[in-house]
Design brief:
It is built from one helix and twelve strands. With 236 residues, it is mainly beta.
Length: 236
């Protein structure tokens, strides 16, 4: 056989500088990788959540018969690797949590009350946001429209907060009232549960709540009345 028709070794170079069958197969595989990897990536990008996309190649199950003329000297041009695209998709679930808030009442409303025991001064009670306040309006005989409110032993301008005095109930307060007689003023409150409390204040040319201690008598505080309106009420 002449050198022009001799078949080269599968691992050596072919005449005329042509690539070996191994290099041709590698070149074909690279071309298929470029052509197939792009669609695979496109599929992955279209998913909501992807863990990865890979391309593998499976050999043609048909053997390459080097003895047949159509194989052109064993090149097996028609036996390309078969690409297989593998895409793994991960689904993510989102939980929805609904929170229900429950409001707790801290007061039943607002209110105001007043009394004029001697024609020269007026004692007032006010309820704001469940907090009772005590105030005094002096000099109403010569100036009945005097709007100034004072409280405390020095008749300082403003109201006295009664919620910080000992014995104040923890149940929300819904109403307040006041009455005065001589040197004494009495404030009353009623809670949301229907309990009534009373507080003694000093009212001698001033309004001092609570009434200060005198001798063996301690300073006053909120005291629940007895019996309460809800305790065995009298039937008509």
């Amino acid at each position: 056989m002449s050198p022009e028709h001799r078949t080269t070794s599968p691992s050596g170079p072919e005449p005329g500088g042509r690539p070996t069958r191994l290099r041709r197969l590698a070149a074909i595989a690279a071309a298929v990788t470029v052509a197939v990897a792009t669609p695979a990536v496109a599929v992955a990008a279209g998913m909501t959540s992807q863990t990865g996309a890979s391309t593998t190649y499976a050999a043609d199950p048909r053997p390459c018969d080097h003895t047949k003329p159509d194989n052109k000297g064993g090149d097996c041009d028609s036996q390309h690797p078969k690409p297989t695209v593998t895409v793994t998709r991960t689904a993510t679930a989102t939980a929805t949590v609904t929170t229900t808030a429950t409001a707790t009442a801290t007061a039943c409303g607002t209110g105001v009350d007043s009394t004029d025991p001697n024609g020269t001064e007026q004692f007032l009670a006010a309820l704001v946001g469940g907090v009772p306040y005590a105030g005094r309006r002096p000099g109403i005989a010569p100036s009945p429209d005097n709007p100034n409110i004072v409280s405390g032993p020095a008749n300082a301008r403003g109201w006295t907060d009664l919620s910080g005095i000992a014995g104040f109930p923890s149940d929300p307060v819904c109403g307040v009232s006041v009455d005065a007689n001589g040197r004494d003023a009495f404030y009353k409150i009623i809670t949301q549960g229907g309990d009534v409390y009373t507080l003694h204040c000093a009212a001698s040319n001033a309004l001092v709540c609570p009434a200060p201690a005198q001798g063996q008598r301690p300073a006053s505080q909120w005291v629940p009345v007895d019996p309460q309106p809800t305790d065995n009420p009298q039937q008509p």
